[in-house]
Specification:
single chain, alpha/beta, 24 helices, about 15% strand, elongated, binds adenosine-5'-diphosphate, binds zinc ion, ATP binding
Length: about 525
């Protein structure tokens, strides 16, 4: 590879100042730009808000020819192009929202060399017609944004992305850069492999988002919605934010519920008509203090800097998905909250979906591991940020001081006895029941089904009367999170023992358990009111 000339580096600095109005490059921007200017390929992993766009926009301006940007979201192209044009950049996009006349005009300016940047959807780019058009033009570079869409294990998989490897074959001399804000090691390698970027220079920025405070609430006696309400009233009475729900139905119900309580909220999911989705998105971006209640259909690439919170009313699919969704908060660097409430039902549901999916066994295993990593994050008693960063292969020496576990270290206690009782209840009832039933057995609660099953005659019947249901529920979750129990594949919530449970049952191991905060919190709230 040729080194970029000193003059092109100086030019990059000028463009940074004159076109974009910034004084200095951020970490990795200069290195990435330098690599592209010298004709090298790049795989850039930088968190949301890290400044990925400049990494390809500036070299596109400095190098001869047009920079081609592949972006999965047609809706976003318009905004990006508008912003660039305002800065005096000759930018355009090509997509199906334009009539053929507009498209022809843009194709002509591409051939004439009148464009600095051209945004295209992946399915459009890989069409033979587009490829031969590009061969007649002068191309400065290819930028593949949201490159994790190439990962079939990922939550944003787009099959068209896999076809983008053709760019390496058809344009071997044009530098390429793939960018993403989320990728664990496996996904990184998959991106490199699928896009023929094995030999690209990798730039990995820290994934830490220090201004985001992570809080993960156990579902106690209060419903998730009531918990959400106390979180919103206490921390964000008038801020804009996103509330994620799993189903379209609960999106609509939660939005209605917030509106009835006097909180302006809008719904967003794939089942709404496109015009309404666009209108809601536009209002969320423009108006102050709107709560967007949405499924994960909402969010990728939404560039609203002052989203002050992202709340999850259900468990996301993986730690990566959680990281990416919460990453939409606080892009402006100001303090923001990531808040999640979850219960055992979420784990059961997700496991069921994984097993009901069409994927191969390997696929299901991977998804299941990704979910387990998230459950582990939920149940950890140590710093959440350290765990999140560790998942992205980043070591952080000190606890962060800005997550719930750092701010309010959870109380732990010797839970060996209780854990043994819980595991015994699972075993004695032949590993055929879910948490609710098991708790009834442990607490000896009148239960027709239990009596019909003669479970009231078991030695475990009522041996857990000392604790209330919330404690047991929390303990069962911790046992699942630490792999001593597993839920079934069919979504019934049936719990079974694993090998990991043996040493504890045999008395060879002890079990530290986190105290269920329910009782403690309730009394705190009573005191406060
Ligand atoms: P990403 O795509 O990584 O989420 P963006 O490219 O949208 O991030 O950049 C996030 C914000 O940071 C934008 O407002 C951008 O203008 C700003 N930014 C990028 N690079 C710099 C820089 N070198 N100096 C100051 N601000 C920058
Ligand atoms: Zn922490």
């Amino acid at each position: 590879n040729l080194a970029p000339s000193a003059s092109s580096l100086a030019e990059a600095q000028h463009v940074l100042e004159d076109v974009f109005g910034y004084k200095a490059f951020r970490l990795h921007q200069a290195g990435i730009i330098e690599t592209l200017l010298s004709g090298g390929d790049v795989l850039a992993l930088m968190p949301t808000g890290g400044g990925k766009s400049l990494c390809y926009q500036i070299p596109a301006l400095v190098r001869a020819g047009t920079g081609l940007v592949v972006s999965p979201l047609i809706a976003l192209m318009q905004d990006q192009v508008d912003a660039l044009r305002e800065a005096g950049v000759r930018a355009a996009f090509l997509n199906s929202s334009q009539d053929w006349r507009e498209q022809a005009a843009i194709e002509q300016s591409l051939i004439a060399g009148d464009l600095d940047l051209l945004y295209v959807a992946p399915e459009r780019l890989v069409q033979e017609r587009t490829l031969s058009l590009l061969e007649r033009a002068s191309i400065a570079l290819f930028a593949i944004d949201e490159a994790h869409c190439v990962s079939q294990w990922g939550h944003d998989f787009r099959p068209e992305y896999r076809q983008l490897r053709i760019l390496a074959e058809r344009f071997p001399r044009v530098p390429r850069i793939a960018l993403t804000a989320t990728a664990d090691d496996r996904t990184r390698d998959e991106i490199a492999r699928e896009l023929s970027l094995e030999r690209a220079h990798r730039f990995v920025a820290s994934f830490d988002r220090p201004n985001i405070r992570y809080t993960i609430a156990e579902m106690g006696s209060m419903s998730a919605r009531e918990r959400l309400w106390s979180f919103l009233s206490a921390e964000h009475p008038a801020d804009a934010g996103i509330v994620y729900c799993l189903s379209r139905k609960s999106v609509e119900e939660t939005a209605d519920w917030l509106n009835r309580k006097g909180r302006p909220a809008l719904a967003y999911h794939a089942g709404l008509p496109p015009e309404l989705r666009r209108e809601h998105q536009a209002r969320f971006l423009k108006e102050d203090g709107i709560v967007m209640v949405a499924t994960i259909a909402f969010g990728m690439g939404i560039d609203k800097p002052d989203v002050r919170f992202v709340a999850h009313l259900n468990l996301p699919r993986s730690l990566e998905a959680y990281y990416q969704e919460t990453g939409r908060a606080g892009r402006d660097g100001e303090p923001a909250n990531a808040w999640l409430a979850y219960g055992m039902q979420d784990i059961v549901q997700q496991k069921h979906w994984i097993n009901a999916s069409e994927g191969s066994d390997a696929y299901k295993r991977t998804q299941s591991q990704k979910l387990d990593a998230l459950v582990g994050l939920c149940e950890t008693t140590s710093c959440r940020r350290q765990l999140i960063l560790a998942y992205f292969s980043e070591t952080r020496a000190e606890p962060c001081g800005n997550c719930d576990n750092c701010l309010n270290p959870p109380q732990t206690t010797d839970g060996t006895e209780l854990a043994r009782k819980a595991l015994s209840a699972v075993y004695r009832t032949e590993q055929r029941f879910g948490v609710g039933y098991l708790i009834d057995v442990l607490t000896g609660k009148d239960n027709e089904r239990a009596i019909r099953n003669s479970h009231d005659r078991l030695s475990v019947w009522g041996i857990g009367k000392t604790e209330d249901a919330a404690v047991w529920r929390s303990l069962f979750r911790q046992l699942v999170a630490r792999g001593l129990l597993v839920t079934d594949d069919e979504g019934h919530g049936t719990l079974a023992l694993t090998e990991e449970a043996r040493p504890l049952l045999r008395g060879e191991e002890t079990f530290r358990m986190r105290l269920a905060p329910a009782r403690e919190k309730k009394s705190r709230e009573k005191r406060a009111s």
